[in-house]
Amino acid sequence: MDIKNSILAVSPSCLRPIYARVEASPLACRLARGAFWSLTGAMLSRGLGLVSSILVARMLGKWSFGELGVIQSTIGMFGVFAGFGLGMTATRHVAEFRMKDPEKAGRIIAMSGITAFASGAIMATALYVFAPWLASRTLAAAHLTDLLRIGAGLLFLSALNGAQTGALAGFEAYKAIAHVNLLAGLITFPLMVGGAYYAGVKGAVYSLVISAGLNWLLNHLALRSEARRANVPLTLKGCGREISILYTFSLPAVLSGSMVGPVNWACNALLVNQSNGYAEMGVYNAAYIFNTVLLFIGSTVGTPLFSIISSENDTNNERLGRVNILLTWCIGLIPVLPLLSFPEIIQKIYGADYRGNSFSHTVALILFFTCIVLYKDGLARVLAARNLLWWGFLSNLFWGGVVLTGTFFLARFGSAGLAASFAVAYAVNTIVIVPLYVRRRLVPRDTLISLECSCIWLVLITMVLLVIVDASLPYRAVFFVIGTVITTISIFQLLHKREARI
């Protein structure tokens, strides 16, 4: 019995008409198949990653875990430029050309790989050379120099992995991606835990580099296999003909992303330069892990949507547009509602070193802006599919200015101040930018501005306020029930307001 029949066998009978409707639509079948394998791989790999991160946080303690977080943030800052937007570039153009022009798709994959190698090598060298200055002058921790230099290897390999994963997504090879993610997760888990246990922060950083190298090998083998299956030739010959894609698509993509990594790093640097800064960074990093997991799951589910939109050139399909906006947001709300109402759950997981109001406030604010990011993921996919990435750049530029200003004034309040800066920046950016999307009819209006959306945001804001004012557990429990009912009804109404099938 295959997976589909197994799912049907254990599903309630009330869901079977939905399955029938999905099977009747080729587009819905593609989306369901891609989302299933993407989500399966993401949950397995990120589940292992979450457990390993929790164990590492408990073993290292707040201060050392804060150092690890700053190292990862610094690598992420350089990684934006090392990756050069090539993952998204490969996904969009391979999805568009793999059937109608396989040779062109092969040239794009080759060009993406060469560019990733070059940009990754340049930025890894820059990180290695400037590590002493970054560690001593901006991070107030000269002893992190060697760790940053070790991280240069992770930076280089991450650039290569980004281009490869993007190409696999363009082939809609989500089953292969799921297998790679699972194997990578199984490898990374013992490496991270063992490395941190025996060698502290240095062991954890070395483990990340080794894991990235093994991940590259798995991606490389999977990509060659998928290219053969799709009859797409992987050759360097003629790939220079596709270089125009770098400045018409990759450049605005990397400029848009360049606002995120460096801004995150600058905000983290402001925090660690405060009194007890690395301990506060450890608290923030521990809470932020849940943001990383939720966004990874959201992007994994969203990748099939982006691939389908790109291949179909059908961004005016209102039914597809509705699913594009609501899917990742709704998936994120499922774990966020209980975690936001009861941050004690996360505190218990991390142990005594992370207890206190500061941690619970940080968790609540991070989960709140995570919901905003998941809400805007669909908007970002529309911009990329329509090649409007300069809009994304301007949006991120505005966001970066707000969050840097907020962090400058709020960093003295520790991890909660940093989380508040991001929450305010994402909220203000959404309020200012969303009307532009509506006015240009890029997405269905009622998925962005409606009574149902307002109700969901009101529930989330109330939950955050209850945590910040330290409301008692019974009050939060009562509102959790009420808020969950309101959110469920609102989502149901959004999905059925008009014809929502695809």
The SS-based structural class is: mainly alpha
Strand content: under 5%
Instruction: Provide the residue-averaged pLDDT.
Output: 82
Count the E strands: 0
Alpha-carbon distance between the two ends:
27 Å
Instruction: Tell me the Rg in angstroms.
Output: 22 Å
What letter string, H or E per element, gives the SSE order?
HHHHHHHHHHHHHHHHH
The number of helical elements comes to 17
Dominant shape: globular
Can you tag this structure with a few keywords?
mainly alpha, 502 residues, globular
Account of the protein in words:
The chain is mainly alpha-helical and 502 residues long. Helices cover 83% and strands 0% of the residues. Helix 3 packs antiparallel against helix 6, helix 3 crosses helix 8 and helix 16 packs antiparallel against helix 17. The longest helix is centred in the N-terminal third of the chain and has 58 residues.
Task: Give a brief description.
By secondary structure, this protein is mostly helical. It is built from 17 helices and no strands.
Q: What does the secondary structure layout of this molecule look like, with pairings?
A:
Layout lengths: L2 H8 L5 H8 L2 H58 L2 H12 L4 H37 L6 H26 L3 H56 L14 H15 L1 H13 L4 H36 L5 H24 L2 H7 L6 H29 L3 H22 L4 H25 L11 H18 L4 H24 L6
